[in-house]
Amino acid sequence: MNQAHSGEKTVFRARFSSITDTDICTAMVRLGEPDHNEALSVDARQELDLRIGCAFTRFQTKYFQGKYGNLDSSLISFGPCQTPTLGFCVERHDKIQSFKPETYWVLQAKVDADKDRSLLLDWDRVRVFDREIAQMFLNMTKLEKEAQVETMSRKEKAKQRPLALNTVEMLRVASSSLGMGPQHAMQTAERLYTQGYISYPRTETTHYPESFDLKGPLRQQANHPYWADTVKRLLAEGINRPRKGHDAGDHPPITPMKSATEAELGGEAWRLYEYITRHFIATVSHDCKYLQSTISFRIGPERFTCTGKTVISPGFTEIMPWQSVPLEESLPTCQRGDTFAVAEVKMLEKQTSPPDYLTEAELITLMEKHGIGTDASIPVHINNICQRNYVVVESGRRLKPTNLGIVLVHGYYKIDAELVLPTIRSAVEKQLNLIAQGKADYRQVLGHTLDVFKRKFHYFVDSIAGMDELMEVSFSPLAATGKPLSRCGKCHRFMKYIQAKPSRLHCSHCDETYTLPQNGTIKLYKELRCPLDDFELVLWSSGSRGKSYPLCPYCSNHPPFRDMKKGTGCNECTHPTCQHSLSMLGIGQCVECESGVLVLDPTSGPKWRVACNRCNVVAHCFENAHRVRVSADTCSTCEAALLDVDFNKARSPLPGDGTQHTGCVFCDPVFQELVELKHAASCHPMHRGPGRRQGRGRGRGRRPAGKPGTRRPKDKMSALAAYFV
């Protein structure tokens, strides 16, 4: 492996399907070279999905953002697989909405089998949609006193054991029977795999190769408290070879690799592991055999049927009891010509019912059938349409489209139906599979597909008004939504605050929209105005345990200084004289991130806070102090700005009933005992990571670690000072 040819590194691929000693050692002995064609196929899929998705998503998000007040337009995404997935859900919704129930009638007969038991008979015509015709059949049969047996048959039938388990079937069962979403089920299966409990969970194969050791995993379950008896009997009597399924040439079917208990795994991991194990045991068990008896009766001119089933051998249903043949009453023994007394014949009026919304399991089946996504990406696409608020998951894990999801799909149909139909993506997947097989050229497939979607994109841009017409019907314009909050600096009229994501302020007079920080609350800030543009300031807050800062709506969207980024507040503004700016309220370098500055929150009293303007560090200090101000002087030791604090006389920590003190929050012994470092409970995403700009003004630079003469932390130094040093 370390031998280089012409200066190039030699790379091998280890192929294994479970994290066990045997599989890993075997894989290392049988190293092979990576498949170049498979890698090209993956590269093509990634580039196509990224370029197509980004182009459509960016355009439609920007187009509809700022047009409608009650539309969650923070991200209106498009995806070559995601959008057809949504299309299946909306197609079912449209069928439900357009469904018109029809009334039909059925005849139901009941005969006496003996003194204590009666049989319910099914009408061979099933149903009729004309009441007069149904009434005619009823009149012809209700006068009859006896039902005559025409035929009596008994047939031995078998219910086949399941095919070996692949990813799609596991996701279907997890959703329909275990109540687990596909994405969550996949994550749980991956954890079980990395912990060595099951084999690799991403596979399309449902066929075990002839060389696969089936008895090895089965022996692992021989002492399990739930199914030990079944496993021991199979090992003693001999296992049944699994049914021949589909061999996709990837990994073997999902198989339990070692025994585990409910106490060991707990919760949903155990439920999924239990299903995988029971399914595997069922694949090597015998088929379920049962006897089906059918009696055909004639009552007057009409025929009726009664069916019963009796289990002969439970087979695999012993380990999968939910698959067992339903228990039915055994039918009496009879022969042609026998008669039974008719207890009653009646006519029932019923109505056809609309289909229900798609379940996740049904959606997975449709995606697999039409070639939308792979076994690994199917749960991601379903999760995406849920997170984008295109569908909501209702009881029974049914997916109901939202107004936004419905309008999008109808808009795609109106402009270009191929954007939402599964046909074009299915054709692309076939081409990608040909690349993996070495039968198609990577660059030709990539170039042709991009050219097709480029033309579709330009037509979509030119025709977007068609989708906008549908949006206008379902959503309200900005001017008609929101509530007045703060005054515009241009026209001095009130701007409306729109809470729907992305939250923003809209001035209907100027027809201007100003984006606000997300994931927090917005309120007016003391009717104070920005000295640069005369806009009223607003206060953004992430809650009582978080951070808050004022901001100017105009400056936040149009930064007035080069070192300000779009979307920032007054705590990052470098205006030299504004009382709300970083220059006036900044204290010193953040104790955790490299680029943030700790800024005094002037609105936090009497529970005063100092917060970083970049990350989520918050320092609580000087509780119940009357006033806290940032001084013009700086600390001689660390160069941080000093704080002037007026304490409450009854609770002052100062000696001799003193109430006023000026000092450094990092170095002053009095202040060190009054500062507690915490992290904000929630924070705007743009403040979670470090930026690039350093703090400016009045010596608010970073304190040099280990600089001669600097003060080291004492035993009782606060967490803030300890972090800082």
From TrEMBL:
Comp. bias intervals (Basic residues): 685-714
Gene3D superfamilies, per database record: Topoisomerase I, domain 2, Topoisomerase I, domain 3, Topoisomerase I, domain 4
Domain Topo IA-type catalytic: 35-457
Alphabetized UniProt keyword annotations: DNA-binding, Isomerase, Topoisomerase
Catalytic reaction list: ATP-independent breakage of single-stranded DNA, followed by passage and rejoining
Matches recorded under SUPFAM superfamilies: Prokaryotic type I DNA topoisomerase
GO BP of this protein: DNA recombination; DNA repair; DNA topological change
Region Disordered, residue ranges: 684-717
InterPro entries: Topo_IA, Topo_IA_2, Topo_IA_AS, Topo_IA_cen, Topo_IA_cen_sub1, Topo_IA_cen_sub2, Topo_IA_cen_sub3, Topo_IA_core_domain
Class in the EC hierarchy, top level: isomerase
Function: Introduces a single-strand break via transesterification at a target site in duplex DNA. Releases the supercoiling and torsional tension of DNA introduced during the DNA replication and transcription by transiently cleaving and rejoining one strand of the DNA duplex. The scissile phosphodiester is attacked by the catalytic tyrosine of the enzyme, resulting in the formation of a DNA-(5'-phosphotyrosyl)-enzyme intermediate and the expulsion of a 3'-OH DNA strand.
Protein family: Belongs to the type IA topoisomerase family.
Name of the protein: DNA topoisomerase
